[in-house]
Amino acid sequence: MSIRDAVLANLKKITDPVSGQDIVSAGVVRALNVEGDTVRFVLEIDPKNADKMEPVRATAEKAAQMVDGVSKVSAMLTAHSDKAPPDLKPKPKPSQTGPQAVPGVERIIAVASGKGGVGKSTVSANLACALAAEGRRVGLLDADVYGPSQPRMLGVSGRPASPDGKTILPLRNHGVTMMSMGLMTNEGQAVVWRGPMLMGALQQMMSQVQWGALDVLIVDLPPGTGDVQLTLSQKFKVDGAIVVSTPQDVALIDARKGIDMFRQLKTPIVGMIENMSTHICSNCGHEEHVFGHGGVAAEAAELGVPLLGEIPLHLDIRVAADGGAPIVVSKPDSPQAEAFRKIARDLIAAGKA
Ligand SMILES: Nc1ncnc2c1ncn2[C@@H]1O[C@H](COP(=O)(O)OP(=O)(O)OP(=O)(O)O)[C@@H](O)[C@H]1O
Question: What are the structural domains of the chain?
Answer without folding.
Answer: 3-79 (3.30.300.130), 108-349 (3.40.50.300)
